[in-house]
Amino acid sequence: MVARLALAAAAVAMLATPAAAQTWKIDTAHSTASFTVRHMMVSNVHGRFGKLEGTIVYDGKNVASVKADAVIDATTITTDNEKRDAHLKSPDFFDAVNHPRITFKSKRAEAVGKGKFKLIGDLTMRGKTKEVVLDVDGPTDPVTVQNAQRIGATATTTINRQDYGVSWSRTMDGGGYVVSDEVRITLELELIKQ
């Protein structure tokens, strides 16, 4: 009887103990950070950054356990147009020489439905930090490839670039701006369990 009670108490304790946190590293070869911005109020221009690094801590079960720390290399920006890319790296936009890192550090995560959650954290760009909310689809169920577990997720948010000092624009004849203030950001992540 005592042995049974001890066993039951141990089982309850195990259920009450949260799952151990696991560290997942962003697979830089299979992850992207991209953005979309309206140009001259008639079309969308798409761009991406060539280098995205970071880690996610996740217990594998509860999205509220997610903690993220990511770095985007602003010097690797590309829109497939050399002249435009040089302008985007200049002080008019990202000022990549003086501010080469764009960072995101999460504060908390909130489940919003099956396979979806919100990740709230601080986005820092050009030395300015603002809280943003990432809408996340995922994480996927893990798969094992070459003895390594992998999961994936897609995160999106929309920011006002003026909040970060990315303020260059011109007014067009007849009204409107050459570059919109609203920028949509998409992160496609593949993560490797460490």
Topology of this protein?
Layout (H helix, E strand, L loop, with lengths): L1 H15 L5 E5 L5 E8 L3 E7 L2 E7 L8 E7 L3 E2 L3 H8 L11 E13 L2 E10 L2 E10 L5 E3 L2 E13 L18 E15 L1
Antiparallel strand pairs: 1-4, 1-12, 2-3, 2-12, 3-6, 4-5, 5-7, 7-8, 8-9, 9-11, 10-11, 11-12
Helix content bin? 10-25%
Tell me the name of the CATH class.
Mainly Beta
Let me know the largest β-sheet.
8 strands, antiparallel, barrel
Based on CA atoms alone, the radius of gyration comes out at: 21 Å
What does this structure look like?
The chain is mainly beta. It has one domain (about 20-194): Lipid/polyisoprenoid-binding, YceI-like (Lipocalin, Beta Barrel). It has two helices and twelve strands, in the order H-E-E-E-E-E-E-H-E-E-E-E-E-E. The chain has helices at about 1-15, 80-90, and strands at about 20-25, 30-40, 45-50, 50-60, 65-75, 75-80, 100-115, 115-125, 130-135, 145, 150-160, 180-194. Strands 1-4-5-7-8-9-11-12 form an eight-stranded antiparallel β-barrel. Strand 4 and strand 5 (about 65-75) form a beta hairpin. The radius of gyration is 21 Å and the shape is globular. Residues about 1-15 have low confidence and may be disordered.
